Amino acid sequence: MTALAANSLVVRRGGATLIDDVSLSLGPQGSVAVIGPNGAGKSTLLRTLAGIDAPTAGQVRLGGRDLGALASAERARAIGFLPQTFEPHWDLSVGDLLELGAARAGALPAGAIDRAKRAFELAGLEKRRWSTLSGGERARVLLATVLVVDPPVLIADEPSAALDIRHRLETIRTLAARGRGQVGDGRLSVVVVHDLDLAFRFFERIVLLAKGRLVADEPADRLIHDPRLDEVFGIRFERLKVGERWMLTPSPNLSP
Hints:
It is a single chain. This protein has 256 residues and is α/β, with parallel strands linked by helices. The protein has one domain: Rossmann fold, CATH 3.40.50.300. It has 9 helices and 12 strands. It has a 6-stranded mixed β-sheet, with helices on both faces. Strands 2-1-4-5 form a 4-stranded antiparallel β-sheet, covered by helices on one side. Strands 11-12 form a two-stranded antiparallel sheet. Helix 3 packs parallel to helix 5. The protein starts with a strand and ends in a 6-residue tail after the last strand.
């Protein structure tokens, strides 16, 4: 069971404070959406939680151990990271990328790569080079290379940005569902989501950032009614209930 925790994180770059005293406790299972306006520090927080970047101060702990002290191979097996953008050093084929992704786990169950191809509709693309893929195809390949290992922790920085509407919806649903235990045995999914309706529709827990600080960390069904949501985004939302879920829409009176 792998829990992830951030303790008093501070990240400074070039004199600017990108993350300012953020603490989070994330259990071994759950679906967590990270939201906030542009420049809130969402990508920086995720890169720090994944061990890609080191904090200026504070600590990230994985299963009670200092993430920075773990060997890179152990960290790679435990945490899958989906960046906003990705460009391999070599123009590899889809098949090669899947094999490299699978190699992080050492030994995979039989058929794991084939299941990943089916899940992300990659059949027939195995010999295609990265440079020949569309934005949506690249996004699906990247998802497959990370999820073929089925890591205990998945950290994803807006993984659906390059996808069409159908694949965007399916991707967000899949990532959230694996954190709720609806896929496999349940894992921890921490995902930057720019579409607020998708965040509140699919994720159990919402982390709201603004200017590098943690504004709120609440269950989705509680935070959606919180006026801090309007204040952070600088707009007044109307809350509309559609069936069992809520939707946010800008009010004609836009000021919060």
